[in-house]
Hints:
Six copies of one chain form a homohexamer. The first copy, chain A, has helices spanning 12-25, 47-66, 82-88, 96-107, 121-131, 155-170, 188-195, 202-216; strands at residues 2-6, 31-35, 40-41, 71-74, 93-95, 111-115, 137-142, 176-180, 199-201, 234-235. By secondary structure, chain A is α/β, with parallel strands linked by helices. In chain A, the strands form two sheets. A four-stranded parallel sheet of chain A has the order 2-1-4-5, with helices on both faces. The first copy, chain A, has a four-stranded parallel sheet with strand order 7-6-8-9, with helices on both faces. Strand 3 (40-41) of chain E pairs antiparallel with strand 10 (234-235) of chain F, so a sheet runs across the interface.
Amino acid sequence: xxxxxxxxxxxxxxxxxxxxxxxxxxxxxxxxxxxxxxxxxxxxxxxxxxxxxxxxxxxxxxxxxxxxxxxxxxxxxxxxxxxxxxxxxxxxxxxxxxxxxxxxxxxxxxxxxxxxxxxxxxxxxxxxxxxxxxxxxxxxxxxxxxxxxxxxxxxxxxxxxxxxxxxxxxxxxxxxxxxxxxxxxxxxxxxxxxxxxxxxxxxxxxxxxxxxxxxxxxxxxxxxxxxxxxxxxxxxxxxxxxxxxxxxxxxxx
Amino acid sequence: xxxxxxxxxxxxxxxxxxxxxxxxxxxxxxxxxxxxxxxxxxxxxxxxxxxxxxxxxxxxxxxxxxxxxxxxxxxxxxxxxxxxxxxxxxxxxxxxxxxxxxxxxxxxxxxxxxxxxxxxxxxxxxxxxxxxxxxxxxxxxxxxxxxxxxxxxxxxxxxxxxxxxxxxxxxxxxxxxxxxxxxxxxxxxxxxxxxxxxxxxxxxxxxxxxxxxxxxxxxxxxxxxxxxxxxxxxxxxxxxxxxxxxxxxxxxx
Amino acid sequence: xxxxxxxxxxxxxxxxxxxxxxxxxxxxxxxxxxxxxxxxxxxxxxxxxxxxxxxxxxxxxxxxxxxxxxxxxxxxxxxxxxxxxxxxxxxxxxxxxxxxxxxxxxxxxxxxxxxxxxxxxxxxxxxxxxxxxxxxxxxxxxxxxxxxxxxxxxxxxxxxxxxxxxxxxxxxxxxxxxxxxxxxxxxxxxxxxxxxxxxxxxxxxxxxxxxxxxxxxxxxxxxxxxxxxxxxxxxxxxxxxxxxxxxxxxxxx
Amino acid sequence: xxxxxxxxxxxxxxxxxxxxxxxxxxxxxxxxxxxxxxxxxxxxxxxxxxxxxxxxxxxxxxxxxxxxxxxxxxxxxxxxxxxxxxxxxxxxxxxxxxxxxxxxxxxxxxxxxxxxxxxxxxxxxxxxxxxxxxxxxxxxxxxxxxxxxxxxxxxxxxxxxxxxxxxxxxxxxxxxxxxxxxxxxxxxxxxxxxxxxxxxxxxxxxxxxxxxxxxxxxxxxxxxxxxxxxxxxxxxxxxxxxxxxxxxxxxxx
Amino acid sequence: xxxxxxxxxxxxxxxxxxxxxxxxxxxxxxxxxxxxxxxxxxxxxxxxxxxxxxxxxxxxxxxxxxxxxxxxxxxxxxxxxxxxxxxxxxxxxxxxxxxxxxxxxxxxxxxxxxxxxxxxxxxxxxxxxxxxxxxxxxxxxxxxxxxxxxxxxxxxxxxxxxxxxxxxxxxxxxxxxxxxxxxxxxxxxxxxxxxxxxxxxxxxxxxxxxxxxxxxxxxxxxxxxxxxxxxxxxxxxxxxxxxxxxxxxxxxx
Amino acid sequence: xxxxxxxxxxxxxxxxxxxxxxxxxxxxxxxxxxxxxxxxxxxxxxxxxxxxxxxxxxxxxxxxxxxxxxxxxxxxxxxxxxxxxxxxxxxxxxxxxxxxxxxxxxxxxxxxxxxxxxxxxxxxxxxxxxxxxxxxxxxxxxxxxxxxxxxxxxxxxxxxxxxxxxxxxxxxxxxxxxxxxxxxxxxxxxxxxxxxxxxxxxxxxxxxxxxxxxxxxxxxxxxxxxxxxxxxxxxxxxxxxxxxxxxxxxxxx
Lengths: 253, 253, 253, 253, 253, 253
């Protein structure tokens, strides 16, 4: 099968790292196509960043559909634009946060989440609520490590991350840890060896779930909430989504 | 005070209608500046539409800030991009759904919501949850009237809408009705006269709340969750958000 | 418009203070009529006090109705007798706690509440639940300052209050603060200047919401839950509520 | 033991009926003292009625305390003034709704509630939430039988009540029924015989729980939330609650 | 009446202790028959222990039914096999945790639970959720005292238990305490004297509730969820449950 | 990898059917070992059946551990004894209900569950709550087809099942369907072809998740809640769980 693995951040280093993780987790018959948007922010660390990245990400979903992939993975822990992507895709779309929560809940009574900036905590909490995993999560902890600082993790950055993981285990009672950023993907093995508890990387989790759906022949139901959007006019820089004729309008009244 | 009243749909008719409603509700000292994005979908009726409109809408927030408005109103019932807008604005940003729920809860024990397409029901439900009004809402009902069909409401469309409102009152036990689309704004008075219960239009409600905050000197707290986003590089069609130097990157690995 | 601003505590100092706050917030066209019950406790600090004050407060609602006011405000943070007042009033009745939560949620991601006695914490928590704002509140904190000690706030009392506000901001993560007692109304400006975050006084918030409803022509729906109570006999000290003939009955069996 | 069984409605017929039920359920060593307020409404069917009855009821709690009873029962399905009563009483105070929910949950997977006026439904729902029994209740149904019409139940009134009970059983899936008005107390046996499911009358349930607490030596914890109210001045018709000297104050400013 | 008081742990010391507590709480007309399973673990301290004890416990319910008892009490704080027991019993089955929560909620605003091993905390939390008492519980605290160490409580074990109780009162704000193990039953009086707050032992609470139901003539509804299980074949060591003929089957395919 | 696929019902036909489904879903490198208990009920359709089957099932987990399997699947829709199994197993244990909910939530906005007996509805509802999927489920529907009648599905039984599925889709708004009994496993393909929506069989879903965990090297965290039970004495028919010496005790006091 072919998986369109999308890094919604426009930072090449993270895309490469994510691709490597995904490939390490994939079956040999799975082809991982790593992609990222041409437009948008280099990293997603605020609601503003996420709104911009979401619009940009949908172009990459469309490209994947044209390439006839069998699944899309949105490889950013906020699972941005997931519903919109499911509307325009014909094949499954999986977010890495949701995927990580699913597998974590299978191997631990309570899992913790260790993420990047304090500011992104509401995003994690919102996702836990959306997917229904709040009561299975012992807490979300921020490291205040910037997304881009994860491209090449220095020793002290790793120590900070590990210390926060330990607080999640010993203070919050976590029994497994979900890494709250696709950029932490390559640290899974080291953390797992150091902490001796299940460490769940959403990228790898999403790859396995995409393969699972594919092997079972399960696809997004296209009748109802995830049906294709109605055809309509799009203006300006979104004219490529335009299914009708273009229209010009005045802006201020 | 100056209010930036944003129709996130790119349909001029709705923008004009919303502006008229807002002006009818505003104090004489309030200046309503109606605006809409140059980019994006003519109407918002799916998660896909909303993602695109959200990115486009932020440009209009930025313009409003440059025009030194005292508040922004996002005049689409999904309250799209509300958190992102609050991050980049220095003055209050109000969504019309949230505003309508607030005033409705002051005049009725339970209020109903009557909206457009069945497909948008999850949006209303998500907003009720976000704002905490689920238990005060007797139900959300869709009319399956398309947003653009509200531009000039024919008699039969009005009858359909009124019939759905009556079901909300008599079957669900609503005691007030929230109109679930900015495009229904001009029907408030007629529905109110016909149904004899409080009819709450979010556009008018938002204007009053914006004026209230302004008169009390209350603005969005810019420390914490709604602080300004960190400076970072934006690529391609979002370079105008770029605070750093532009960077070029390869896309596929 | 005329607003019946009711202090349900029978302490004149607080009534004067509340009246001053309300007038500072009101439009010039709004007439604030400050009132308080002839009967009942001088301050409300327990469920017992609240039950007595509630019965007494309804007389003041009735007086306001006879004076043809356009709205009633119940200026005690417990929003006592709100439903009962809405049943007997024809115009909107607004509680200051509910009003404060509404405006606070428009300017901050999470707001804190700082109130008087520890014993009143369940009241605040019950109100947050009633109005649906629990998830938007970072916590309720008691100062253990008695209501009557707020009549003339000494320096050390202010310092205590400010210290508790700071704990709400720095320990709980509040981004705005709701003052949990009408008697704190006059400290809004000073706290706002000292703490540099939005400080929401429910009295002022309620005045703006009352004006908003009035300007939009919205009144309590009198069909359904807030309909007028059925006529029935009232005995003893409540005979003035008696719509039927008086009846005498034996008490013990 | 001595139980102060309070009918907060001032209708003698209901008081007598409740007393008879309570006595039928009590141990021979239990002395049921039926009482009702000198003041207040003849029946409680609205929030307004409840606020007035609540203030009046507290006098009867005080009388009971002076009579050195061992427990108080508030025999109105709204459990009015329960927290306030617990503050001023030294012995346990039990509401009949809470008592009924407790016993019902012991004999059925889901119980239904059949009550009087549609308007009182929110009261029942609020009580289910307060006590935490929402998920164990299959639904609350109103018969729209007025409280006073229960004094002498005509055949057709009984048929209506029974029909609503059957709907609770067959449509809602109730497996036991809680009678939602103290005035239905005398119908327990007949309904039980006709419907062949557990019928729980709150008056009887409360008597058994009061006896249970008494036999175990359990009393309300008077430290904390149910501690005695602080001494303070009460004005006007509530001067009998006045622990301090009386104070005169002007009312309007 | 006759009560089948079941200790699902196979430790005779605890059975004796529980029997003594139950007898101290029972009316003189109540006959307490203490029983325990012939099969299963000596103490229940994990989900594994509970599953085994649950199957064993049902035999003791069956014996009680054959002895024509009037109620069964499951005297282990996890209320194991409660639903299954209600299915096979014709008379009420009461769990001691549920019983304790009920009485505790009548004498305190918030109660705390003090239990044995940390590992059993999820059991208590699950029970609070099942019965709907989560919001009335200030917290569950583990002492890490093993169940069997409660058979003869040494001074230092009592001190540990009391210290944890004090933390529940002073740190969590509990106003009454529920003892989270039937084996603590005999410490109720001493803790009550030392701590001066209501101490609720589930064994005593369950006895009073069983008597209450019996005196009111209330039994488990046997139509619906607690109806008798369908007759079917049981294999191997469960053949005594077999209502049909025995059947032999191969195990591995 | 080796998977211990456990049918907790002692009916060979179902075990064979489940094994066939699992094998159709498994990778060629996965070895499915179908097993069932020597003891217990032939089908699980009540809480009583489930308690007995749970104790019996743990023996089969132990056998699997001795056979050095890499994962256990509990192939009964109630996910019986899941926590206990995780305590005694060293490798992952997956329940088919939880597995089905996970995959269903990836391909539909809301999924429905179609199960066997009305009486098992609370089991499904409890599982949705346990796993956090209540808000993603449009409803659980019972067909009242007995588990054993699924061994050889007659045409009319299939028609009934399909009709209930259609009600879930058209009346409840389900967009995917979870089959609520392992015995329906072989109907997945036919229902999928007939209904044209995703049909999720928990057996297949669990196989894919077991493979996913195995490939990622994730196992149950054995520190904390799922740690091995403490060694202790087991009496009678559970002596094979006995890690200590056997002890004899008297039963009745």
